Amino acid sequence: MRGVLGHLMLTLRLNFRARQALVYGYLVPVFFLLAFGSVFHSSVPPLLHEMGQLVTITVLGGACFGMPTSMVSERERGVWRRYRLLPASTAGLVVSAMVARYLIVLLAVLLQFGLAWCLYRTPFPAEPGAMLVAFTAVCFAFLGMGLVIAMLADAVPAVQALGQAIFLPMIMIGGVGVPLRTLPPWAQHVAGYLPGRYAVEVLDACYLPGGKGLAGCGFALAALVVIGAAGCVAGSRMFRWDAGQKLGWGTKPWIVCALAGWLIVGMTAEFTGRLAALEAGPTRILQGWEKVTPAEIEAVRFDGLSRDDDVVAPVAKGLDDLTPASRTRVEGIETKLAEWGPGKDVDMVQRVRNLLSVAAVFDVLEDPDEGAIGYVVLDFTRRQAPEEEMEKVLTYIIENPKGGTVVTKASEFGAVGGITEDSARERVGMYAAKSLKRLLGKGGN
To answer: For residue 404, what are the contacts with CB-CB under 8 A and spacing of at least 6?
Structure first.
């Protein structure tokens, strides 16, 4: 055990000293996060339904490139020949290398979670404990595959070639980079034989609010364990200590063992009907606000809308005219909006109703800073989605004043007392109209 722990600590220390390892291990996952964020920023909340894919890509990168590149590079330099002198078994050293990569990838995933929240306000996993179990199963499956790559590759360039041969198909047709529901039927069948599909399934089940959790992913978890076990057994039997050591004919059949894990999983899924169930892919049903047409938006009339400097639904031009105390108070309310639970509702229309309700409460209660609060609420609300989507949401709220629910108290923001539902709905409609008017370039009044 002392030898295994010593090898684990040495592997971690060498990884964080290598500049190239840090780039591949942490900058590349950040790049994928930003790339996904630029494509899926309009989802609600942003990136929530893509985090399972992102985590899978990060683990896949560590398995296809990170761990095998490190192992082959060390083998070429004769490092593993020296490791053989440690008071540890081959299995122990293999487990140590995999645990080290597991910890490295875990840190990269935590970095992605933190940046996703900071940049896009993407929620954290709904079930953190279950998410850790799912992540561990995914790492086991992929790192077993990475061990096989490390044993097959004679040099670092060979790792890149073998890694790409697995990484790219998994990204394109394995349900990892391209969502499974958008793939044609034949690709969904192929994905059933690849671990990426099951990795995304278990991660999504634990990350998404209301997901089915680990209890509903028994087959996917079993598939990952089978694939990982096959890879680990094959990689251990093919293990090479020295760069000059070649794979003998007696060890090459173990490659078939590694692939047999994928084949067994795919055929089981095929015969149990798990692949046919997704052939057509789920059809996305448009929400009510998404059906709003440009003609409906243009048809909204602003006649009779109160002026921004009126006592009803006031909106200040900015915060420059506030006293220092009032400005600090209003800025504090703006900060709290970003943390407020109802302001993160997954239903875009309800989220906007909740946010506009905050301005409505302060307005009806005749708060001395009601105009400035209305200003920061409208400014914060319109940043919840791209302008073209927000125009539809606001129009939908205006056309459906009795829909959803409204907030009648805002004690979290320092408002004392409450208002009636009718008054809240009236003011929400007015603030929605004022926000839409600004988005359409018609200014305030």
So the answer is: 347, 349, 350, 353
